[in-house]
Design goal:
Elements lengths: L1 E4 L7 H11 L8 H9 L3 E8 L2 E13 L2 E11 L8 H16 L3 E5 L6 H9 L16
Parallel strand pairs: 4-5
Antiparallel strand pairs: 1-2, 2-3, 3-4
Length: 142
C-alpha cells in the first residue's frame, strides 16, 4: 500500500533514514525537523510504501511551475534491499506518474539515476521515461 504522507509522524523518521542509508553512500542525517518541513511543504510530496505496516519503500515528488510549463521531479526512489524483486519500485513509479498526471498535467516528470543502478534505469525506461540529452549540474548551498 502506498501512502501519501501529509502529516508529521515521528515514527517515520527511523524507517526513512534506513532507506536513505541504502540509497546513497553519502551520509544523510534525516530527522524529525526534516520530515516536518517536507510534509508541510506544498511543493513536496512524500510517499511511503508499506508491506504489512512495515515501510519498505519511498519516493518524493517535488513540483513547480516555470515559464516552460509545470515540472515534477521524482527523487529518492528506494526499496528496502530485503524487499526488492517484488515490483515495488514499479508500483512506486507508476503511482508517481498517476499522481503527477492527476495533479499537474500537462507537465514534465523528470528524474535522475546513477548509471550504476542498472535495475532502476531499466525500470525507468520501461515505465516510459526517456533519457534527456542535457547535463545536470549541482551546486551545494552551504
Amino acid at each position: 500500500m502506498i501512502e501519501h504522507v501529509t502529516t508529521f509522524d515521528p515514527t517515520l523518521v527511523a524507517p526513512i533514514q534506513q532507506l536513505l542509508d541504502q540509497l546513497t553512500k553519502q551520509p544523510i542525517n534525516f530527522g524529525a525537523e526534516q520530515l516536518q518541513a517536507l510534509v508541510e511543504s506544498e511543493n513536496s510530496h512524500l510517499f511511503v510504501l508499506r508491506e504489512q505496516e512495515q515501510i519498505v519503500g519511498m519516493l518524493t515528488i517535488g513540483s513547480y511551475l516555470s515559464p516552460t510549463g509545470a515540472k515534477a521531479w521524482v527523487e529518492d526512489v528506494v526499496v528496502d534491499k530485503e524487499h526488492r524483486g517484488k515490483e515495488y519500485g514499479r508500483e512506486l513509479i507508476n503511482h508517481a506518474i498517476r499522481f503527477c498526471e492527476e495533479r499537474l498535467a500537462p507537465c514534465s516528470i523528470m528524474l535522475t539515476s546513477n548509471p550504476m543502478r542498472v535495475a532502476a534505469n531499466a525500470l525507468y525506461r520501461s515505465s516510459g521515461f526517456e533519457p534527456k540529452h542535457t547535463n545536470v549540474y549541482k551546486y551545494n548551498c552551504l
